[in-house]
């Protein structure tokens, strides 16, 4: 279990404020270290969560066809710059042996994986792998679409550029027609 050290974050934020040449004691900034510590505790709370835990909820339903939860909004923090990237995740799986999980658990898994210093690719593959490892389904497809603030507000400055990542497991791997069908359902608005 990761330990969250609010005091250390407060000290660090105060140092950053000083290092950029600002006055940490002026009225608008005096509570900023505390606020940032509270915010980080919230946006990094996934560090204390295991996405696989959510899939303990299983209904013995013999549905061996597609289940897709799409347009799951998420916010994450790019691990290179610690600025946000955000967008939507689409999670599909084909259950096996009655291992059907609660729909909200797919969204909870996305949330827990996103709320850490992250890479978009890792969010995508971690969500897919945790479903494979817990539900042993016929197949899983996860697609994530996101805009990275490190590419919009700084650096290359390309607002509107969207990164799309996918993770494909099981029966979808060798079946381009099923993959295309699910992808079409996922990205159709
Ligand atoms: N693969 C991947 N790259 C990411 C993600 N988020 C941010 N990046 C990239 O991480 C890279 C870090 O590159 P560096 O050259 O180390 O850092 P930098 O000098 O700040 O890079 P620039 O953004 O090009 O200015 C950049 O190309 C970012 O666009 C992500 O989720 N996945
Ligand atoms: Zn970045």
UniProtKB/TrEMBL annotation:
Q: State which pathway it belongs to.
A: Cofactor biosynthesis; 7,8-dihydroneopterin triphosphate biosynthesis; 7,8-dihydroneopterin triphosphate from GTP: step 1/1
Which CDD domains did the record assign?
Answer: GTP_cyclohydro1 (cd00642)
The EC number(s) given in the record are: 3.5.4.16
Q: Where does Zn(2+) bind?
A: 78, 81, 150
Q: Which reaction does it catalyse?
A: GTP + H2O = 7,8-dihydroneopterin 3'-triphosphate + formate + H(+)
User: Can the keyword Metal-binding be found in this entry's annotation?
Assistant: yes
Asked if the keyword GTP-binding belongs to this entry, the reply reads yes
One GO biological-process annotation of the entry reads: tetrahydrofolate biosynthetic process
Annotated GO CC locations? cytoplasm
Which positions fall inside the GTP cyclohydrolase I domain? 9-186
Span-the-membrane segments of this chain are: none
- Keywords linked to the UniProt accession: GTP-binding, Hydrolase, Metal-binding, Nucleotide-binding, One-carbon metabolism, Zinc
Q: What class does this enzyme belong to in the EC scheme?
A: hydrolase
Tell me the superkingdom of the source: Bacteria
**InterPro entries linked:** GTP-CH-I_C/QueF (IPR043133), GTP-CH-I_N (IPR043134), GTP_CycHdrlase_I (IPR001474), GTP_CycHdrlase_I_CS (IPR018234), GTP_CycHdrlase_I_dom (IPR020602)
One annotated GO molecular function is: GTP cyclohydrolase I activity
Q: From which residue to which does any coiled coil extend?
A: none
Subunit architecture: Homopolymer.
Which family does the UniProt entry place this protein in? Belongs to the GTP cyclohydrolase I family.
Q: What is this protein called?
A: GTP cyclohydrolase 1
- Which species? Pueribacillus theae
């Amino acid at each position: 279990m990761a330990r969250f050290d609010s005091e250390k974050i407060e000290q660090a934020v105060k140092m950053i404020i000083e290092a950029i040449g600002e006055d940490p004691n002026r009225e608008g900034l005096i509570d900023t270290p505390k606020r940032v510590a509270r915010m980080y505790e919230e946006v990094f709370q996934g560090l204390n969560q295991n996405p696989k835990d959510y899939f303990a909820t299983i209904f013995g339903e013999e549905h061996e066809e597609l289940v897709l939860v799409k347009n799951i909004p998420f916010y994450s923090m790019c691990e290179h710059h610690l600025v946000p990237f955000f967008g939507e995740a689409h999670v599909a799986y084909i259950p096996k042996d009655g291992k059907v999980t609660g729909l909200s658990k797919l969204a909870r898994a996305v949330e827990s994986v996103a709320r850490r210093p992250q890479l978009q690719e890792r969010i995508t593959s971690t969500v897919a792998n945790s479903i494979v490892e817990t539900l042993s389904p016929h197949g899983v497809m996860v697609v994530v679409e996101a805009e990275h603030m490190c590419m919009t507000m700084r650096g290359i400055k390309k607002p509107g550029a969207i990164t799309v990542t996918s993770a494909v497991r099981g029966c979808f791997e060798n079946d381009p027609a099923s993959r295309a069908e699910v992808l079409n359902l996922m990205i159709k608005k």
